[in-house]
Structures are given as C-alpha cells and as structure tokens.
Specification:
2 copies of one chain form a homodimer. Chain A has about 750 residues and is of the alpha+beta class. Chain A is about 30% helix and about 25% strand. The first copy, chain A, contains 18 helices and 36 strands. In chain A, the strands form 9 sheets. Chain A has an 11-stranded antiparallel β-sheet, with helices on both faces. A 5-stranded antiparallel β-sheet of chain A has the order 10-9-15-20-19, with no helix packed on it. A 5-stranded antiparallel β-sheet of chain A has the order 22-31-32-33-36. In chain A, helix 5 (about 330-345) runs parallel beside helix 9, helix 5 (about 330-345) crosses helix 18 and helix 11 crosses helix 13. The mean pLDDT of chain A is about 95. The interface of A and B includes residues 402, 526 and 546 of A.
Chain lengths: ~750, ~750
C-alpha cells in the first residue's frame, strides 16, 4: 500500500482508493474517480447523489448556450439514480464512518466503485462507461445485510442536474416502456433532443407493479421488499444515452440498445478493450509505485477524454464537468496528441481531421475579425466557431467582467495546429492525409497569418503585433517569440507542402481554396523576412518586445503579496502580474518543447534558468513543459519536481478551481496528456529528427527503470531504460527509423541490443 | 449688472465680481480670479491666505519631481503673505458677511482684488502680475478705520506652500537685506535655485526696527502701530521671483529689480500693455454682456497662460495650479495657437519654436519606445521629454494605478504639431521659419510616423495599429481616423516642404538629420497607400476599426448609470465607456475642425449628428469643437449651447476637478483658447483656403453683433457682423488675401464694404 495523500492510496499501481467520505472534497473526487469513454463522462459519485454532490454525466457534442454567454456540454439526466432505504433509513456514504467507506477507481478497466458499511448493511456499487458500446453505462449495486430487513429502492432518472451556466434541458418528458424509464429533453439553445434510458434489474424481483412517479425533475420507481439475513441483493442498472446530433431518433436507439444486456458480458468486453489500450499506452515505472500510478492515472484520463468514436474535440477538462466548455484548446494538439502520434497514429489522425472538419468555423472567425484564411478558435467545439466569450473572467473586486482577449489575440493556436499536422505527416509519410486534409489546413493557416502579420518598412521585416502568447497574463504584446517561431514554421511547411504535393493535387487544392501565385510569393516573402527574436548576450530570448523592461520580481510568487483578494485574476487588464516579468506558464520554454532541434543546449539552459524563477505555473500546462526541458538541461531534480507537480495536479488537487470568478475545476486533460510526454520526451529524451530516433535518458533518483512502447512506421518498439543501460526491442527492422542516436552516438538499431548511455 | 452665477456678476463685461466669501469654493475662485503673465501665475487669494486656502504662485520652467512620478511646476514661497490684526483681531475675508465682501478680477488690466468690511475696518487689497517686468507682482492693501485702533501687520514670506505631489523645495534659506525679506530654496529633484524677495512699504512707517522671525516655514516681520480715526493705511508689497533656469544668481536679480519700484508706475505700464493686448485679441459681443465677458475672460486666461517671454509650453491648466504639470499637450497647437496665428503670428511662431527646441526630447521618446524621428511628448515640459507618467489615473475601487497609454499610444500629437507648423507657414509664407525650424520638425514627424505605421501586405495599404485617438476612453485601437488623416497630411506636407525648400537648404537639413533618398521614397509610398477611413453609406466615418461594433448607448450619458463610484475613470482598461460607443470628446468631429476643407458639408453634418449624441463631453476640449462644427452644419442652437458649455467651464465650474483619483482642476486653458475660435471660426465661419478669406456668419439668437480683428499679412482687418450685414475694414489692400468668399460668393475685398450674407 502506498499513500498518495492521507486518504488516497494505491495497492498495485493500478488503482486509486479513497478512504473515508469527505463532503468538502466531492467536487474533486467526482472528477478524479470518474469513468468515461470519450463519448460520455460519468463522475465518480454514488448512485444516490445528485446536483448538490456534483453528480454528472457530460456527453460530447451537446453544446448549448443557456445564458447567452457560455456554450457548454449538457449534463444529461442521470439514469443511474438509485436511493436505497433499509428499514426506512437511507443508505449513503455520507453516513458511513471513515474506516467503513472506500471509493475506488480501477485504471485497468475503468471501473469506478464505492463501498461502505452502514449497519446492518454492506453496500457496494460499481459502474463503468462501456468502451464497447459508448452509449451505455452499466452499474451494479450489491447489498448484503446480516439480518432480515425491509428494503426500499427508489430508482430512476434524476433530471435536476448540476450546471455551471444555466439550465440546458427544457421540455423534459419522462415516460416508461417495458419496465424501463426514460427521459427525453430538448436543449435550450440548439433544440437538440437528448434521450436517456434507465433499465433496471433487481435480483429476481418483478418490477412491473412498482409505482412510478414524477416529482421535482425526478422520475422514479419505488420497489419495496424484504431481505433475509445474509441475502445478497443485486441492483443492476444500465444508463443508455443518445442525442440527436448522433442519430435521428435518440430514444429509439436507447430502446434498441436496451435489448439483451448482460452486465458481466459488458464488463468482459470492456476489460478487453482496456487491456489493448494499456498494451499501447502504459508506462511502467519500477521503483516508485505512486509515480507509476500517477502516470497511469493521467493516461487513463487522457484516454477517456478522447472521442475516438468521432472527430470531435478533446475537452480541456475532458468530460469531467462543464468547465472550459468541453471544448478543445491548443492543449489538444500540443499536450494530448503526441502520445497517440507515437503509439496509435490513427487516433492522432482523427484528432487532426477534427481540425479539418472545423476549418469553416476557423474561416468564419478569421473573417469576422477582419482576417483571411483560418483563424482557429481558442475554444473550439463541434463547428470550430469561437466559443470563448469576450468576457471570460471578472474583476472580483469590482464585479465587472474582464474583456480577456484569448479569443481574438491569442493567434498561436493556428500555427500550432499546422505544426501538429506536420508532426503527423513527417512521422507517418501519410501523403493521402496531407493531400486530403493537411495541406488545406496548412495553407489556410499560413493565409491567416499572412493577413495578420504586418510589415515594418523601416526595419524591412514582418512582425506580429497586438497578440497574446501562451503566457496569458501578458495580453496585447508584440512579437511573442513562441508565436513568431510557430508562424515561421507554418510558412516553411506551407512552402514545403507545395513542393511535396503532386502538381495535380496542388492544383486541385489551390483551386478549391483559391490559392493564388501571388499568395505563395507572399508566403515566401514573409518566411524570408519574419522577425525571429534571437537570444541576447546571456543567451536569453525575450518573451516579447520590451518584456525585459517590465518589473523583475523573482521569484514570481512574490507578487502574491500584492493581491487584494486571493481569487482575483493575475493578468490583463490590471492584475498583479501584468506589469511584471512574472508569467503564468511556460512561454519561451514551450518553444524548446515543440522544437527541441531549434537551439543549442546552452541557449535552452540559459532560458530555462532565466524563466523558471519568473514562472508562476498557474496553468496546468506549465510544469510538464518545464519538466521536459529540465530533463534536457540536466536539472534532473527540477525535472522530477515539475513532473510531480504535473502528474498529481488532479490526484492531489493542487490547482485553483476558481479564477477571476470563473469555475475552472475538473480534470486537467492537458496535464493528463503531458504525463506520457514527460517520461518519453523528458526523462527518456526521445525525439525524431531526420528520420532518426533520438534517446537521451536520465532517471530521477528513486526510479529503478522505466519502460514504454513506441509505434513507429507500423512497428512496435519497446524501450526499457534502467539506471545502467537501455534496451530497445522490436519485431522487424524498419527502413525509416533504422538509426538511433543516444547522447550524440549513432547506433544501428538492432532488437535487444543493450546500450549504455550514461 | 449681469449675473453669471448667483454670486458672480459683471458690470461692464470687463470684470467679474464674486459676492460673498465661500470657503468651499476657494479652490475654484483662486484659479478664476488669478493674475498672471506667462511667467508666473498668482492665484486670486487674499494676502493672509495660505496652503489650506490653495494660495499659490506657480512659476514656469521650474519642473521638479518630488514623488518620483509627477514632474510639476513649483509653487514658490509666497512673498505677498500679509496678516493684519486690528485690536488683536485678525482681518480676514472669511469673517466678513456676504454683503461686505467682494472679489474682483479686472480683465482690462489683470488686476485682481478683494475688499471687505470688518467693523471698524474697511479692507481692500489688489495685485497684478506685471506684464512690464514679469518677475514682479505688486500688491497694495488699503485699510481704513473709523476709529482709533491698534494695528499689527505680520508680513513676509510663507514657504509652507500647497503641492499636489510632494514638496519641491528643500533647504529653504530665509534672510533679509535692506529691510527686504527673501527666501532662497533648492528644488528637490533638479536642484534649481528659486529666490523670492518681499519688499514692503507701509505708509510712512520705518520698518527697520520691526522684529523678524522664522517659524514653521514662514519668515515674517511684525510691525505694530496705532491709527487714527479715518486714517488710511497703505501696505504695498512687491513680490519678486527669479530662478536659476533663467539667471545665474536669482537672488541678485531679485535685489536688482527691487530698486526704485513705484506701484503706480508699474500699474500704468501694465495697463498699457493690456490695452495693446485687447486691441489685438478682444471680441465684442453686442447683445449679451455675460457672453462677451465670458469670451474676454477666456481670452484673458489664454493670454496669461502663454509664456511669450520665452519658448516654453502653454500649460493645460496654464499657471493656475500644478494639475497637468504646467506642461503642453496638443491643446497648445490646436486650441491656443490659432488665436495668435490670426492676430499675432509672432507669438504663434514662438510657440512653434518651443516645439523646435524640444525636438531632441521628442527624438529621445521615439528612440526609447523603439521608433525613429520625433515622437512628441503627450505632456511636454521644457525639454520635450515625456512627463506623462505610465500610471495616470487609478482604479478608485481597487486603489490600483491604471496603466493609461496617453504617453505611448496617443501618437496624433506628432502630426498635430506638423499640422500647426504648416498652418503657420501657409498663412505667413515665412520661408525662414520653414527653413530654420519647420522643415526639420515636419521631416522628423514624418520619420516617426513612418517608423510606426505598418504595411498590411494583403490589403496593400499602410495602417496605424495600437494607437489612441483624441477620444482617450478607447485606447489601443486601429486606424483612428483622426490620426490617420493627420498622419497623411504630415506626409503630404513633408513632401511639399521638399519641393518648397531650395536645393541648398534641403541639402543642409537633410545632412543635419541624415534624411536619405530612400526615406523620401518611403514617405511617398506611405502617402500613396495610407489607409484613410471613408464615410459609410450614411456618410459617417468610423472613429476607428470596429467602433461601430461596440455597444451603442444613446445618449452617451446613459452609461453613468453603470458607475460603481461617481469618481471612477470611464475609460481604459475597464471603465464603463470602454466597450460602448460612448466617447469622451470630439474625435472624428475634431477632424472637420482642423480640416474644414476635407469633406462636403453633408458628410460633416452626418458625422455631427451621429457622434454628438455619443459624446460625453468629458474633456474641456470637446464642446468648443462641437460648437464650431454645429455652426457650420446649421445647428445654431447646439452651436450656442456648446459655446456656453465651453466658455463657462471655469466661471461656472462645470467640470470635475478629480478623475480616477487624480486632481485635474484649475483653468482649462484649451477651452480658454477655444473661445476665440468658436466666435471666429464657428459663428463667423472664418477660414483661409487657397489664400482666400472665407466667412460664413451665423449668429446666436440673442446676439446683435460681433466684431473682432484679424491680422493677416501685416494688415489688421476689423470684421463686424450683425444680424443683417457684415463689414470688413482695413487700412491697406493686401496682395495675398485680396479675395473674400462669403457663402460661396466671391467678393473683391474692399475696406468698409458692406456684404449681406444672410
């Protein structure tokens, strides 16, 4: 048994167990113990819990705006709702004492469960979002009493759900058919139909005569019966959910899926798919079971947040709640996609096709703001139209909303997507993808950038003005280095794509998007003359023009003393960080993360050392990037410290759930995706450059060894690194990635060969 | 007798009289009744008053920064300080009852006086800032009692002065010589020496034996004597002030000037110079004595704010207090200079030479902010270095300073100065001025603009981004139309100057400032392709890009309801006006004011009608501009309404003295300068275009006639306009301005000819 927190342990490194019910922690536990499948996310709450306990089942592709401001995913009616009364006393984990209660999430198969004892009852429940049929969540409750009791089960659908910004479901229509209960409702803004169905089996009890009633947005059946001593009662429920964005008649689909359901069969099928997942994605860490658990936990959250059934966004909080609107940020490409890219490129491809499908939304955004091409949404839902409201945070002191400019000044999202397209193409040589999807995106991104960039005639160079880099506390800056470099690569790749595409294919795409000769010339001109901030004499690159002239507060955290209220927003337009060099998150450092080849290690080191102490790490995207760069620059202790910061963000609940009056809690999906990268790109030092595999391993002190799999060019490579040596194992030899470079030494890649890199 | 306010009257239209002492109004009355001469401004307070009564004598060219933030003029020790005790009771206007007290400012000769009765004493005092010797303020106190009394006079120097931002004077050294008292002090930041001297004559009393003492920053002599019934006692004091920015040894100069002083002689010399002033600048308004008084009052304030003795700035609050730092804004060129341009061009030239003398400061500002050429200071003192602090206002709710961008984004000040240079040159044909001063300014301004402007390659045009127009509530905008047009004219005039200058002169100037061929080409290129926002279908020009997309609140004043506190700042970064179309002051309308020839009257009218209801008029620069344009567009009632708003700003104290926590009270010198323009450019419709005089008179209902003088090409023209006809009288006929256009009809200009324009 290994402790993560006082009340949080793991046994084998495959499960997290919460000991003792803590009412104040339910908003966290609900996210942390959730189950999901990329289509829906069901929070790790008990069957009897409701909105006051932050119960919720968030379903992708149900975006709706109820308050005229925040478009968010619906929390659908909870069809697993079950209250059990034993001799008229309600069973509830809230009443169990610490030792008798445990909540558990099994990462191996995504089963989340709760068990407790409330004399004379031993209660346990478990559920999982099926990976086999993503519309179903099977739930099993088992009750055992050591004496004869009178049991009452009130079960059905609870439509009185938790929402962040307004009620999304109206015209809730409850009904029952063949002893199953259902609820159909219409979404507030877009009038989508959402149907949930509850199918229940209680041991061998006939439910057909049990009374059903509708009351206060709940539609429930009450079943009463007596139990013998030591009799085990099983209540199995299946929640099935469809909505009209998937299918024409959601309720009919629910009903169709309700036939021939078997809990154990569904469990087995689910277990099997999870087994396959872990074969691809698992990382073993020998020597520290908590860290191993934490990485797995993050990978688990990353997987269940990814809608591999469709081309839909990976939400910045996955499907754990409505925060960040169930929508994709740049996190998707930069933090979540790389694990798939190197282990399951088909999923990466699907994620990128989502960006292709949302090109029109990005075009609309560009046009609306006076630009051309594709300006990707900062917060992107199904259509790619911008979901980020103009006023994101508020001034908690005056109560006035703040006009944040995430949605109109943070342009780097666009070249970040072009970058990922290229990452995928370069790794896979998937010409068809480039032709059918990638080229158009890259061109439209370059087109947008060419409509945003400005030329300074006296400097004879192109610049980006009035933009916002990854460090969101400093809005409205000039030449954010990260943005300028990303834009530069976008133009480079656009020109490269033109070379790669066959004349015929280029011609077709050019015609489709009306790409003209003068535009290509303009891309070349901008590529040639775009201002790329260079390291200064100390080797440090200025984050944006005049950044070095800002007040220098070291360490950054000292600015906390200037807060008037703890919950106020630090950034634009008048927060405590704005006029200082204190930055929210990795910005320049992010550049070395996405382009490890760009600068010599001395420069990276100088920048790491300058910016680390000026970074507040108030974004969950920050520690992982610093960890990876610290691994590269020989700051192993700091690499591990930031690794820990990142992988335990959710498990240890280290980040603020509310900022500037806006709820931003839930699972930090980018950090989830970053866990894999911190091991593989960070500690193992993996990168691909010029079709060669690079590894440059360093291990934190406590770790004995790590091992993980890469899937490159149709081949699985197992990498095992211990404190003395490393080994790569694979089945067949590849043409493309046949060379390995470890710490500047070139090796021919042979399976099983042992290399001593230290 | 005509009332202006209940306690404010005029008799002849040449004086303002305040009846009844009002403690709460002293900060206003002190400014309104002040005397001055462009070198110093002495507030209209009583001789016994001190800092708590906002007494003050502000001297130009004494800029000093005591608090590390605000550079402001010094309030020098008050050498007119005089307390009088009658039978041990102090005489004070505060103790006089309403009917027995009056404060008076005689505009005819700049004498400010106070008189009151405090039984048994009849008290009166008067003083004036000498125009003959600008270092001297003579003061005469007369006391008469109807019975025998014991009088005690405590007089000398009060160095405990009122300051807005820190004490500027340190090491105050008091002393006396030849029965005269003096104070020498050193300024806090720049270590300038300031000397004041007090010379006193009390009837025929010998002062040599009176005790002198120093106490609490006061250095006083006490003189005691008895008076007979009905004896008149006269206390004459001369305050003399010099500082080390003028002369090497200020005290010596004070002493030199103290010889042979005679109050009556100084008065006579002063009266004579004022008489000459009024011959040039006076406007007669027949039919409304208050309005006539008000215009005169504004002209008076404009004159005493103008340092014609030197090339120094006209302060935005003149020399009435320390607000706005005794420094020049664009107000100087656009609001104050035109009266001089058309009546006394030598003064206008001096004002422009001030801008020439501060070119280096403007160059330093440009360089510091990453630009080239001359970026004139938003708040300009002696050197032209930027005096505007980064944090001008504060958020009164949170107490946090606000980073206003007057000092780095409000670029139109630069082309505004080039514009005035051209106005002067065009009117006077003063080639020597253009060669020796103007050309260099115009080139350096164009150079700055060419380093700020950006080229948008896909639009094939130049734009200005991240700027701030005259409407300061909307900082950080693109293509503020006023700015773009002013920049356009700057480039035009730069190119025109190149044509006008002789090859030799151009060569010399080019060499001096290293103006190269490619730069001139660039000026041409920008001139050709600069984006000039055009009227939309309704004829309205958008104030800046996307302005029309902002929330439309009509009338603008409705946004007041959104205030949390009355004294909060309305603008950037989160004030109530920022996200609405409510604007602080004339912006587009300002464009028609400076370029009346630019658009047809229909366009001007459409813009007037659109923007008037969206303007808050929260700048004292706003109503006058609207008045002038309203005169042109046939909105005579509104023209008069805004004229009234502008000319009574100070007399009726209509504007806020504090905004966003910063004191901005005192005389609104721009409005003072605008009074003349509202009559001449507004109601009389005067402009010069293509060397022709245009007049297009309209008169407010109550006015019977107006008359004023213009001084063009060495010739004085008297213009008399009544409700039926107009007449121009002059001595000799000019070549240059020999044609007159009145309402589209061309007239040969003959003296005394009557034209019926209506």
């Amino acid at each position: 048994m290994k402790k993560i927190l006082d009340n949080l342990i793991t046994l084998s490194g495959w499960e997290i167990i919460e000991k003792g019910y803590d009412k104040s922690g339910v908003i966290i536990s609900g996210s942390n113990f959730m189950t999901g499948n990329g289509y829906l996310g069901y929070r790790g709450t008990a069957a009897e819990e409701g909105k006051e306990d932050y119960a919720g089942c968030f379903v992708t592709d149900t975006w709706d705006k109820a308050d005229g401001k925040w478009e968010e995913l619906c929390n659908v009616p909870n069809a697993l709702f079950t209250e059990i009364y034993c001799d008229d006393i309600k069973l509830s984990p809230k009443k169990a004492t610490v030792n008798e209660y445990q909540r558990k999430l099994n990462l191996k198969n995504g089963v989340t469960s709760i068990s407790f004892i409330m004399e004379p009852v031993q209660f346990s429940e478990e559920k999982f979002a099926s990976l086999f049929n993503i519309h179903i969540i099977p739930q099993k409750i088992t009750i055992k009493t050591d004496r004869k009791t009178k049991l009452k089960v009130v079960e059905g659908i609870d439509a009185d759900v938790w929402n962040l910004n307004g009620n999304h479901l109206k015209e809730i229509k409850f009904g029952n058919i063949d002893d199953m209960l259902y609820a159909e409702s219409i979404t507030c803004e877009k009038a989508q139909t959402i149907a949930v169905l509850s199918k229940t089996v209680i041991s061998n009890i006939d439910l057909s005569n049990s009374p059903i009633e509708e009351k206060a947005y709940k539609y429930t059946r009450t079943v009463e019966f007596e139990t013998d001593a030591n009799q085990e009662i099983t209540i199995i429920k299946y929640m099935i959910c469809y909505h009209s964005n998937n299918v024409k008649n959601p309720l009919e689909h629910c009903l169709a899926d309700s036939k021939n359901l078997n809990y154990n069969d569904l469990r087995k099928l689910n277990d099997k798919i999870w087994e396959e997942n872990w074969r691809r994605y698992d990382i073993e860490i020998n020597g520290n079971i908590q860290d191993e658990l934490a990485v797995r936990y993050n990978t688990y959250q990353s997987i269940i947040a990814t809608p591999i059934h469709d081309s839909l966004p990976v939400g910045a909080r996955g499907l754990s709640c409505q925060a960040y609107q169930g929508a994709a940020f740049w996190d998707q490409e930069i933090f979540n996609l790389p694990m798939y890219l190197f282990t399951n490129p088909e999923v990466a491809k699907k994620m990128l096709i989502y960006r292709y499908n949302t090109l029109d939304g990005a075009r609309r955004k560009a046009k609306r703001l006076g630009y051309e091409g594709a300006y990707y949404a900062w917060i992107s839902g199904k259509t790619g139209d911008e979901l980020c409201p103009d006023f994101f945070f508020k001034d908690v002191i005056t109560g006035r909303p703040i006009r944040n400019h995430f949605n109109d000044w943070q342009i780097h999202i666009t070249p970040d997507i072009a970058y990922s397209i290229w990452q995928y193409y370069e790794l896979t040589d998937d010409y068809e993808f480039l032709r059918d999807y990638g080229a158009e995106i890259i061109f439209e991104c370059a087109r947008f950038l060419s409509s945003h960039v400005v030329y300074k005639p006296r400097k004879d160079r192109y610049e980006f003005v009035k933009i916002q880099g990854p460090d969101e506390y400093h809005e409205n800056v000039e030449n954010n280095a990260f943005t300028n470099y990303q834009a530069y690569f976008n133009f480079e790749k656009a020109l490269r794509t033109i070379e790669i595409l066959s004349d015929n294919d280029l011609d077709k795409i050019s015609k489709k998007i009306n790409l003209l000769e003068w535009e290509i010339k303009l891309f070349k001109e901008i590529y040639r003359k775009l201002y790329l901030p260079q390291p200064n004499e100390e080797g440090v690159i200025e984050q944006f023009d005049h950044y070095f002239m800002l007040e220098d507060v070291v360490p950054a955290s000292k600015i906390k003393e200037r807060l008037i209220r703890d919950d106020e927003y630090y950034g634009w337009p008048n927060g405590v960080a704005l006029f200082t060099q204190s930055i929210k998150q990795a910005d320049i450092i992010q550049l070395f993360f996405v382009h490890p080849e760009l600068f010599e290690i001395d420069i990276i080191k100088a920048n790491y050392e300058y910016y680390e102490s000026r970074t507040l790490h108030f974004s969950s995207l920050s520690p992982s990037v610093y960890s990876i760069i610290a691994s590269r620059t020989g700051h192993i202790d700091e690499a591990y410290k930031n690794f820990v910061k990142s992988v335990y963000i959710d498990l240890k609940n280290t980040n603020e759930a509310i900022s500037g009056g806006t709820f931003i809690g839930g699972i930090h999906t980018a950090a989830s995706g970053a866990a894999w990268q911190m091991i593989v790109k960070g500690f193992a030092g993996f990168k691909i450059q010029n079709e060669q595999i690079y590894l440059d391993p360093v291990l934190p002190e406590e770790w004995k060894s790590i091992s993980f799999n890469l899937f490159l060019d149709g081949n699985t490579y197992q990498i095992i690194i211990d404190r003395k040596e490393m080994k790569i194992q694979f089945e067949k030899r590849n043409e493309k990635y046949s060379k390995l470079i470890v710490k500047d030494t070139l090796y021919a890649l042979n399976t099983g060969k042992t290399i001593i890199p230290f």
